[in-house]
Amino acid sequence: MQVNVSIIIAVFNGEKYLPECLDSIIKQKYHNFETIIIDGGSTDQTVSIIKDYSNRLLIQWISEKDNGIYDAWNKAISMSQGTWLTFVGCDDVMFEDWLQIMLRSTDANPTLNFVSAITTMVSNDLKPIRNWGSRWNLSKMNRYMNVAHVGAFHHRTLFDRFGTFNISYKKVADYEFLLRIGNSISASFVNEVIGLMRHGGASDTVDALKEALIVKKKVAKINNLLALLQYCWAVMAFYKRKVMNR
């Protein structure tokens, strides 16, 4: 049977939360999927955990040094067999009906090539902080990443046609990719929470905002003054959230 969904996970020294992530994938109500794990040469028990879960999940995996999360994702894309590709953090927890809910949208409209939903940002002990994710809107995307990328579905033809993630960006290559292909996206939005994303990842930093500023100018072609104003607003909002979440 042709694999329908490829779940892609990049990990490096992720022994603390990876089992929780993989347990949530095992519990999925929909079963025609593969899991591809790209480990960046971990020195903890990550590889042992992957080997253990390989007895319970259809897993393809490699462990070798890479050039960051987007390099790992690109490797996984080349290994994948699914019609739909989705990217999950090694510390994310996906709800058991996640795949089922997303595929309900793709089945209802065969012309779609991108489906996103809502994720709840949580603390390390899974206390809710805020929900994230709204309907695809290129005008909004030119200003900020308004879609939740965790668990979103990408039709593999997007990568066949436009290439993969630009690894010169270490924090926001997913944002750059979506902007780059924005005019060709046929999107649907699932107005439901599909999983939990732990707060404090690589994209939740001031460095990520600086990279996003570069992307906006290069890809979205936003003029320098407007891009700088958006950057200043984003930095202020970032520090406001930090204060409120203490």
From TrEMBL:
<keyword id="KW-0808">Transferase</keyword>
<dbReference type="InterPro" id="IPR029044">
    <property type="entry name" value="Nucleotide-diphossugar_trans"/>
</dbReference>
<feature type="domain" description="Glycosyltransferase 2-like">
    <location>
        <begin position="6"/>
        <end position="154"/>
    </location>
</feature>
<dbReference type="Pfam" id="PF00535">
    <property type="entry name" value="Glycos_transf_2"/>
</dbReference>
<protein>
    <submittedName>
        <fullName>Glycosyltransferase involved in cell wall biosynthesis</fullName>
    </submittedName>
</protein>
<dbReference type="InterPro" id="IPR001173">
    <property type="entry name" value="Glyco_trans_2-like"/>
</dbReference>
<dbReference type="GO" id="GO:0016758">
    <property type="term" value="F:hexosyltransferase activity"/>
</dbReference>
